[in-house]
Structure formats: structure tokens, C-alpha cells
Amino acid sequence: MMQLDDKVVLVTGAGNGLGAATAIACARAGARIWLVDRDAEGLAAVAAQIEALGGTCGSFTANLSLRQICFDAVEAAIAHFGRLDGLCNIAGITLFHRICDVTEADWQKTLAIILSAPFYLSQAAIPELIRNRGSIVNVASSGGIKGTSYTVPYSAAKAGVIHMTKCMAMEFINEPIRINAVAPGGMITNIMGGNPIPQDLDFNLISRFSGIRPPVDPSEVANLIVYVLSDATPSLHGAILSADGGVTAD
Predict the structure, then answer these.
(1) Average pLDDT value for residue range 187-196
(2) Which of 41, 114, 199, 201 is most buried, with most CB under 10 Å away?
(3) Are 183 and 141 in contact (CB under 8 A)?
(4) Stretch 98-122: mean pLDDT
(5) Cβ-proximal residues to 59 (8 Å cutoff; 6+ apart), any chain
(6) Known active-site residue 154
(7) 8-245 maps to CATH 3.40.50.720
(8) Could you state, in order of their start, the residue ranges of all structural domains in the chain?
């Protein structure tokens, strides 16, 4: 049932981590993939993996911090494949700082990538997705559900993703489109992007939301995203599915 045969799926953050794992999982399920990331080398590596599986993909190298670039990414996917059936909003950034040390640039960059880009991409994609009875999967986080320390911009943006997903789902409840979110916990990725956790932070506060179970391989969450994206879940709309090893059950 978890098949995406001949569907066209746009995946952001596809150059590494969860985005790359999701693109590969979607390709394994039969989808044609439009890879979007600012990391051209990462996109090339993921494209090579998809092609080695016998899959089909195209790529679009861009920083999604601007509305027009988001629209360009969607329009390029439709121009390349002739249609669009799925949108996976995965691109993200995490910075650990005390709240008073967060710069305006850090705040704006975090919100632009995590919250604004999925909004603009959805704006661009929704008309085509309605025509094709398609699906949007936004990636939220356990940090958008549970209070966290030292990640106020990230967690605030992810909380916005959660409520944006629900509001979009309600606005289009009478249309043939499904809009949902998956909220992972800790994963083995490089989302820190070369921005390590400052060593003078209180790691006891950080451990309160890191969970008892260890971080998971992103392929586990990617499989859930494929399931939500697929036609196996026709009644799933406006849902926020936690995949955090029980972090938000506490």
C-alpha cells in the first residue's frame, strides 16, 4: 500500500539527513523525485543513489529563504515532470543559543527556512496538488510540541509549522488534497550544519527534552513520511504524527 508509483514528489533539504533519506525512500516506492537543497554536492550524491536504484530525479539548487525562489522551485518541478503530486517540506536549521544571544540574523534565518519556506512552497504547489489529488507532508519536531531550552527560534518555528499544517488542512478540507505533518525527535543527521552546541550551556536542561531512547537513523522517519504521503492514508488530513521515541508522551 505504501506505493508512490509514477507520482512526482518535491523534497526540500534533499541534499542530506532526513531530506535525503526521504527522497531515496520515495524513489524506492516508485516516485519521481524533484530534489531541492542549497548543497549542490549533496544533491548530486543523492541523485546518484536514486539513479543507482533505477529511479528518476531532477534537482534544483537554491536557498529557500525567499518567496520567489520557493515558487521557482515548484514551477521548475512541474516544468520538468509535467505534474506534481507531493510536497515534502523538510529543509531545516538548528542553532543552540541562550535566548539573549540570538541575533536578529539568526532569528530571521531560522524562521525563513523552517516556517516561511514551507508556507511559500505550499502556496505555489497547492493548485497543482489539488488537480492531482496530491499530498503535503510538513516536517515539524518534538521541539514544536514540548518546551525546549536554548532552541527558541527553532522550536517556535516548528510550533508554527504544526499550527500552519492544521490551518491549511481546515482551509482545504473540502478539496482533494491532504495536508499533514510528521514531528520527529532526535535523529542522526548534520542539521547543526557546523554550528556546535556551546559548551557553557546547561546540558541538564538540554537532556530534559532529548529523550531516553537514542537518536534514530533518518530512514525510520522517512518511511513514515512515505506512508503519510501515499494513498494508503486517504483519511489522514490535518494530523501531526509524532515519531520521537516517546519524548512528547512524557
Answers:
(1) 64
(2) 114
(3) yes
(4) 96
(5) 14, 34, 35, 36, 37, 43, 44, 47
(6) yes
(7) yes
(8) 8-245
